[in-house]
Amino acid sequence: MDMNVHPQIERCAPEISAGLMTALVQRESNGNPFAIGLDGKEGFFPQPRSLHEAVSAAEALTKHGKTFSVGLAQIHSSNIKSLGITWRQAFDGCENLRVGQQIFSSFHSKAIKAGFRNADAVFAALRGYNSGNLYAPVSNVYATAIMANATSDLRRRLSPSGAVRYIGHVTSPTAEPVQSESAELFEK
Question: Which strands sit side by side in the sheet containing 36-38, from one edge to the other?
Answer without folding.
Answer: 36-38, 68-70, 75-76
